[in-house]
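Why do we care about 3D structure at all? Because function follows from shape, and shape follows, mostly, from sequence. That is the central idea of this module. The next example makes it concrete: a single protein chain, its amino acid sequence, and then its structure expressed as tokens.
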Amino acid sequence: MKVKEIIEAIAGEILVPPAVDIEVDRAFAADLMSDILAFAQPQMLMITGMTNLQAVRTAEMSDMPVILFARGKRPPAALLELAQEIGIGILLSPYTMYETSGLLYQAGLPGMGKLPTVQQQ
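And the structure:
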């Protein structure tokens, strides 16, 4: 799914365009960067509400070209500057993470599918 299609599906906003016209092939939603790192795949859309620099660094390490901030949370200028510097697109959704994910899934963007059960200690 192209960025333009993502924005249309969620009535969102582009805060930083990605470095190139990319297409994401799946999405993952979480506020824990450790969860995102555990399941990250290249060309995946990160959906989160964590508007800190760590989100951009996580996307960079995981080859995720776009971050979508949910709940209308506008990130600080320092985050936007860092994202622009390294070429990661930043999008904004006015919906909750649940509704954002549902709208994108309904529009044809799949998630990770069934994940294995993880035993917590």
